[in-house]
Structure to design on (574 residues):
């Protein structure tokens, strides 16, 4: 009888979980058409570039300042949805990982409480949290992707399997630099004797493994290994909209506060870990509290933090609210602080004070630090489960059966495969074929490569798709322009135009793509399009155009046949 009731409860909870998921997807569907500035000026353009390049060939070019693992997801989404639906394709990635994060939240809470109903509540709250919805459905950001793996890492640590947790952490770090905020958790566990120093080699090993496809497809080794340094060089402001301590320190000199903030973050990690050890608090017994503390403290003290960097802490605040009755109020302050920053950026309505958001975050940090050292009962706080060591035989037997030996194997295999991928990638880069290279334009020391141009006949126009990359000393769009000539079968001029338009404030030194519509009086007569590059000064000299085999294009203009097709429902970026 008891067994039958248990099965019935599981069935009811499963149906409720499906209904909650449907409701969460409907909420996200409502925001499907919102175009954030990040989409307009960054991720949307990357998506279009991947489309025009034909998918994986785009990886040969440094066109985005995100790591290759995230670009793999953009390529996969591109294969499912065309550039005309780039907004939906980008948001789809984030929403899929919303669901994975919700499942991870369920696993974490169920592992801690052994109460599926409470775990389902956390699952529902996470899917409906305002910053979670805003991040994926409105913003279309990458934060749900790496956060899902951070949550799985925390779950594995709770299951007394820190090495597999370190694998998930390494995947998160390979996707987004901000995953490093959780690294001290594993350093503390190493000091507690639950990890060995050699286990930390898992992090670079997984990073190398996940970047092997990009290297093998021709991506520059330097671009791959220095991608996070490129990101760190982009912003110089003390805070990029984050509700952190710098919102409370207006008027202070940046050159002093920046290094001081970095030093404060390091000192906090050291002092916090030292106090945990002196208080004989094992990390295994306080995983959620320690993780949440680290994920709040790092973006609170570090300079140049963006408004989204408290996203993992937002989710963990919900987990703590469901597992620790002392902190049931925590989501209101953590998510509240984040939401103020989100609202200010997305809707440009500074009615909510970022200073108040910083105060909310400070209160949250103080609370989780206090609870980290407070004595707790088995009901009030985190406790270890003796049978956790017997769980998840997959990780123990398949991935890490002999811990030290497995780490060594993983590192060696990563290094060997990564080393093999370097000459393979160099060979791919050296052998650029006709399908990806239309011409290399050069004039003096300037050069630019045009890839995969297309021309499609529409109802009353011809749509030309352009993509360029690998530019050297080309200047901005005011000096260099593509000319577009639409010709009939006798090479008579039907229409002409220049590209890009003046309202594209981008530089040709960046890989980029554009759809360009040209109205034609007689589209049926259009048979080919000529594309060339010229300097908009003096006597308008043309750049020399060399084909993929080194031969010079006649009149330094690439010829693209006009084909019948359906034009993309393209909305020009503004």
């Amino acid at each position: 009888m008891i067994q039958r009731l248990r099965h019935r409860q599981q069935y009811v909870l499963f149906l409720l979980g499906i209904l909650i998921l449907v409701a969460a997807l409907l909420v996200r569907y409502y925001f499907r058409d919102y175009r954030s500035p990040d989409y307009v000026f960054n991720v949307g353009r990357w998506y279009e570039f991947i489309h025009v390049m034909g998918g994986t060939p785009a990886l040969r070019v440094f066109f985005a300042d995100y790591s290759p693992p995230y670009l793999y997801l953009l390529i996969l989404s591109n294969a499912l949805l065309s550039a005309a639906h780039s907004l939906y394709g980008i948001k789809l990635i984030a929403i899929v990982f919303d669901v994975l994060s919700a499942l991870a939240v369920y696993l974490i809470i169920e592992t801690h409480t052994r109460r599926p109903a409470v775990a389902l509540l956390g699952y529902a709250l996470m899917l409906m949290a305002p910053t979670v919805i805003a991040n994926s459905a409105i913003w279309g950001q990458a934060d749900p992707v790496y956060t899902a793996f951070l949550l799985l890492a925390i779950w594995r640590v709770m299951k007394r399997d820190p090495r597999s947790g370190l694998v998930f952490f390494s995947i998160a770090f390979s996707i987004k630099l901000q995953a490093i905020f959780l690294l001290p958790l594993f350093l503390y566990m190493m000091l507690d004797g639950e990890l060995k120093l050699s286990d930390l080699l898992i992090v670079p090993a997984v990073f190398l493994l996940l970047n092997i496809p990009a290297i093998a497809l021709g991506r520059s080794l330097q671009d791959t290994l220095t991608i996070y340094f490129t990101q760190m060089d982009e912003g110089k402001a003390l805070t990029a909209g984050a509700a952190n301590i710098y919102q409370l320190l207006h008027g202070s000199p940046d050159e002093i506060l920046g290094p001081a903030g970095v030093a404060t973050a390091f000192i906090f990690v050291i002092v916090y870990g030292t106090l945990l050890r002196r208080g004989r608090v094992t990390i295994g017994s306080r995983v959620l509290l320690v993780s949440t503390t680290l994920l709040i403290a790092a973006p609170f003290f570090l300079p140049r933090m963006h408004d989204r960097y408290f996203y993992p802490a937002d989710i963990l605040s919900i987990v703590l609210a469901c597992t620790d009755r002392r902190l049931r109020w925590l989501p209101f302050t953590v998510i509240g602080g984040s939401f103020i920053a989100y609202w200010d950026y997305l809707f440009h309505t500074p009615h909510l004070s970022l200073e108040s958001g910083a105060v909310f975050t400070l209160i949250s940090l103080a609370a989780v630090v206090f609870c980290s050292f407070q004595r707790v009962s088995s009901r009030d706080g985190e406790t270890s489960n003796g049978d956790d060591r017997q769980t998840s035989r997959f990780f123990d037997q398949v991935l890490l059966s002999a811990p030290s030996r497995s780490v060594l194997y993983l590192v060696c295999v990563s290094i060997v495969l990564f080393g093999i991928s370097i000459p393979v990638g160099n060979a791919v880069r050296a052998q650029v074929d006709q399908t990806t290279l239309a011409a290399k334009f050069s004039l003096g020391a300037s050069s630019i490569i045009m890839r995969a141009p297309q021309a499609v006949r529409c109802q009353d126009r011809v749509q030309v798709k352009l993509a360029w990359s690998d530019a050297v000393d080309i200047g901005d769009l005011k000096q260099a322009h593509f000319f577009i000539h639409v010709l009939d079968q006798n090479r008579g001029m039907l229409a002409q135009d220049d590209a890009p338009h003046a309202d594209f404030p981008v530089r040709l030194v960046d890989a980029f793509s554009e759809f360009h519509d040209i109205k034609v009086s007689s589209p049926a007569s259009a048979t080919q399009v000529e594309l060339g590059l010229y300097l908009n000064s003096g006597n308008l000299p043309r750049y020399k155009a060399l084909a993929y085999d080194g031969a010079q294009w006649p009149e330094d203009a690439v010829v693209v046949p006009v084909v019948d097709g359906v034009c993309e429902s393209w909305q020009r970026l503004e």
Summary: The chain is about 50% helix and 10% strand. The chain has two domains: 36-224+236-413, 439-564. The CA atoms of residues 502 and 554 lie 28 Å apart. Residues 36-224+236-413 form one domain.
